[in-house]
Amino acid sequence: MIFYLSMIETAEDKRKFERLYLAHKQTMFYAANRILKNEHSAEDAVHGAFMRILNHLEKINETECHKTRAFFVVIVEHIAIDMYRKQKRMSEVPYDELTHCVEDSQADTFESEGDLSSALKQLPLNYSTVLRLKFAQGYSDTEIAELLNITEENVRQRISRGKKKLSQMLAKEGDLE
Amino acid sequence: MSKIIDDAFLYANMQGAEKEMLSDIPQESELSHAFSRRFQRKMKALMKYERRSPAMRVVFRQMKTAAAVFVVVLSLSFGTVMSVEAYRMRFFTFITTAWEELTSIVTGSEQNADHDKLTAIAPTYLPDGYAVSEQKVDRYENTIIYHNESGSEIYYSQDLITQGELIVDTEGVPLDEMMIENQKVLMLQKNGTVQFFWNDTFYAYTLIGKADVSELTKMAESVIKK
């Protein structure tokens, strides 16, 4: 019986991967391309993201469309940023300085105190990625480590530093008002 | 004033903030990027891999663990796929294992060559009627697709070697070994498509086409001689 149940689950997963691909490939390409500014590289990032997601299909809830879309975007952005760093060489572009839209990040300003969205856009991507996966997507530190190919210690460190930076950014904005 | 960011605040507000961030991105239906054939081939290969039985994928995952840096490369009857992020190693060894439907070629190395940059090498010999229709060269990969007038395609790639794994969809057909100019070349013939795989110190090469074996051998030879 368990054997047959596992077969049903497998068949469902087969369809799921293809459905997710068809439903999000354009969005993922758009998200990667605005970081990489290169269509070939952006396609590589999308492919890399699907390779990364392949072993985490069971964690994706298709019924929560917005949440699923956000998940795909955060993963492809993470991969695109890794590629961007390699292209520019790490010494030239410190990871901590890479923000959401890379070149456009300086255009963002806080509109009001507590504008978490604007603050997140200006937060270095290595921090905002883990914060989004943990607090918006609900992934555990272990799951985030698996998804991003980093250690759990690194995840905890980024969450801690991300929260600190976010606090500073919102506090600074508060002081300006 | 100071805003204290604690977990409760983030759990309560992060989804909304993320939703607002995503509003910068047009809806899927509003976007219409025409994905390249190369990308579509890679995704097709990935979907085919995903459709494999979980047991088979467990085998691959176990093999993944054995490698310090791992990348899955999938090859269908047309196309080879490689993740860009994993090109780090060279001076590799081939360990070829034939499974029921797939052949795994695991490459391993102790030496890191992360700084390496690919120097493109292209075949100097082409079968009659074929010409370059698409080429991409970057730091890690040199891919050329050739077509003839009847639409037949030959795919050539030169990839900076990584520590990882090549998974060839052999569908029960064993890989043959042949020698071209003292270079060991793995060859697979399936449904009229011929696939060649070989490597030198720095690069892994793939040559795939629905062409005569002798013609593809000459193409491979023209690369090996360089």
Structural class of chain B: alpha+beta
Give the termini distance of chain B in whole angstroms. Answer: 68 Å
Mean pLDDT across all amino acids of chain B: 70
Unreliably modeled segments of chain A: 1-9, 89-97, 101-114
Amount of beta strand of chain A: under 5%
Radius of gyration of chain B: 21 Å
Task: Let me know the largest β-sheet of chain A.
Answer: none
- The oligomeric state of the chains shown is heterodimer
Secondary-structure element string of chain B: HHHEEEEEEEEEEEH
Helix content of chain A: over 70%
Number of strands of chain B: 11
Widest sheet, order of strands of chain B: 4-5-6-11-10-9-8
Number of strands of chain A: 0
Biggest sheet record of chain B:
7 strands, antiparallel
The residue-averaged pLDDT of chain A reads 75
Write up what this structure looks like.
The complex is a heterodimer of chains A (177) and B (226). Chain A has 177 residues and is mainly alpha-helical. Helix content of chain A is 71%, strand content 0%. Chain A has seven helices and no strands. Chain A has helices at 2-36, 39-53, 65-88, 116-122, 125-136, 141-148, 152-176. Chain A starts with a helix and ends with a helix. Mean pLDDT of chain A is 75; it is low at 1-9, 89-97 and 101-114. By secondary structure, chain B is of the alpha+beta class. Helix content of chain B is 25%, strand content 31%. Chain B has four helices and eleven strands, in the order H-H-H-E-E-E-E-E-E-E-E-E-E-E-H. Chain B has helices at 7-22, 37-51, 54-66, 213-224; strands at 72-75, 93-98, 103-108, 131-137, 141-147, 153-160, 164-168, 176-180, 183-190, 193-199, 203-209. In chain B, strands 4-5-6-11-10-9-8 form a seven-stranded antiparallel beta sheet. In chain B, strand 5 and strand 6 (153-160) form a beta hairpin. Classes of the chains: A mainly alpha (177), B alpha+beta (226). The interface between A and B is large, with 57 and 48 residues.
